[in-house]
Amino acid sequence: MLSTLAQASAELAATRSRTAKRVVIASVVRQAVLDGADDGAADELRVVVTYLTGSLRQRRTGIGWATLRDAPAPAAAPSLTVGEVDAAFAATAELAGAGSAAARTGAVAALFARATAPEQHLLRGLIAGELRQGALESAVQDGVAAAFGVPVAAVRRAAMLLGSTPEAAALMAGQVPGGAAPDGTADEAAPLADPATVLQALAALRIRVGQPVHPMLAASAPDPAGAVAKTGLPAVVDAKLDGIRIQVHRSGPEVRLFTRSLDEITGRLPEIVAAVRSLDVREVVLDGEVVALDESGRPRAFQEIAARTATGRRHTGVDDTADPAAAELPADPGLPLSLSCFDVLHVDGDDLLDEPLRRRDEVLTRLVPAALRIPRTWAETPEVVEATFLDAVAAGWEGVVVKAPDAGYAAGRRDAGWIKVKPRHTFDLAVVAAEWGYGRRQGWLSNLHLAARDERSGELVMLGKTFKGLTDATLTWQTQQFLAREQRRTKTTVWADPPLVAEIAIDGIQRSPRYPGGIALRFARVLRYRDDKRVDEVDTLQTVLALSGPPAAAGED
Could you tell me which residue ranges the ATP-dependent DNA ligase family profile domain spans (predicted)? Predict the structure, then answer.
């Protein structure tokens, strides 16, 4: 089965067509269910769908580039199964202590020795997180829906409620009679199970308090008028806080707190737990932000709260192998944090996901005191939206999120019901190199290396990369320009001499040891190329630092 997955990955990387990707993914899903009929289709499918999204089930494997570089020659014929690979990665992730590095290297060598060249390519991409097959989670959900003959919206909703697309696919696989297609064949055009049966199982899903769901995300607009054009009026205008997105689950006295990536951080935020316990409610799921405020009520910098909420062994002293709800805080917890709620998803047995925002706001206002709610304005006119935006920025907030009062909670995806607006910083930067694209952008130079000039040394200093804001026409033009100016190249990247100059918009900067300047651009996107500017006229590193404010720690948007 791994060979089938490796072939599918290559096919996904070779096509830009969403329809073609759907066909490939649906075929792999079907094969996984049919192959797993005798020994657990659901378990097999969990792994397959995870790999299709370009990820491993194990968050950390401890496998570095040196180990991958020194892997043995590929096998002549396929023999690995997906289950064997998943088990090998699980065992590798558990290795620790003296001798673990050598044991890990040996385990990887043994695994790669059994893998063919295409399978090794797949495994390297999964381990490094750089599979580059153009199969985002939305495309995988599309393929899963096609395999079972159900609307993709039903799969999205299930993934949101269950926490992941693999879990949604596993639930659907459980509806397949005997683990095979209804007519006993492998007809590619036939659904794996009766669509009505699958839909019934999906429709029965409800929010489970204690099981985090993927949060709704906001789309973007360049200004308040652009946001109103998408949401209409009247509109709800929330302050956009530069904190940590948090999902609150309470059942009786038990409170659990989850980040945007669904990591649990309950033990790190005792003051938030206490605030939630003070609410007069038996069972609730809230969406909000954890922020730090100074004595005047203005928000503190993001990095001041990052240490309190960071997850994972690399970031925190909390042992994340233990129960996260019982994890102890460091002796000095540091700056107290505040909870600002802006939505409610469930209360006392009732799911509110499909209720309009105006109804959810009524419930939120009734349950949560103003001190624990986000600053919110109901705007009837564009002028009020604009004024609220300016007031929010003046107060030190990131901007605003403009929301449609009749919109439901579109969990797990960006939706036109929520539109974020931030002040925009623009700079003229040197585009010193570009990486070849993949998927829909295969054949074009796409991912741009951006640099500013250090006014002290006169050298160009790299600040980050972006592939945002590029139209097909721009991709074609910049590819031609880079090839005409080519100074050198590697397999993935072309360097230009002289570099191009582009006007780049950013939302801010953050500290980063990755680049020589010690900072990286946040959410950079190309506005236009500046063929009227020379490279020696690009903005300096010092200008970027001055106009963007102090760099934040790497964190969440």
Answer: 330-454
Residue 436 shares a structural domain with residue 324: no
8-state DSSP, 81:
-
Q: Domain boundary at 180, 203, 226, which? A: 203
DSSP three-state, residue 535: helix
- Give percent of the chain above pLDDT 70: 89
Contact present, 390 and 423 (Cβ < 8 Å): no
| Residues 6+ positions from 125 with CB-CB distance below 8 Å | 9, 54, 131, 132, 133
Owner of token pair 């080519």: 486
Q: 181 or 101, which is more confident?
A: 101
Q: Choose among 142, 164, 180: nearest CA to 41.
A: 180
The pLDDT confidence band at residue 36, using thresholds 50, 70 and 90, is confident
Q: Are 392 and 401 in contact (CB under 8 A)?
A: no
- DSSP structure string for 139-203: HHHHHHHHHHT--HHHHHHHHHHHSSHHHHHHHHHTTSGGGS-TTSS--TTS-SS-HHHHHHHHH
Q: Choose among 525, 333, 350: nearest CA to 425.
A: 525
> Residue 162: is its pLDDT beyond 60?
yes
Catalytic residue among 21, 230, 240, 468: 240
Domain containing 126: what range?
2-203
Q: Is residue 415 part of a domain?
A: yes
Q: Which pLDDT score is estimated for 547?
A: 64
pLDDT exceeds cutoff 90 at 272: yes
Distances (CA, A) of 427 to 360, 389, 453, 540, 552: 40, 22, 12, 9, 18
- Report CA-CA distances (Å) from 231 to 218, 236, 361, 395: 12, 9, 17, 24
* Annotated catalytic residue 422: no
Average pLDDT over residues 101-128: 93
> Cβ(486)–Cβ(495) under 8 Å?
yes
Whether residue 461 contacts residue 541, with contact meaning beta carbons closer than 8 Å, is answered with yes
Q: Give the phi and the psi of residue 288 in degrees, each rounded to 5.
A: -170, -160
Check pLDDT > 70 for residue 414. Answer: yes
Half-sphere exposure in the Cβ direction for 302 (13 Å, CA): 23
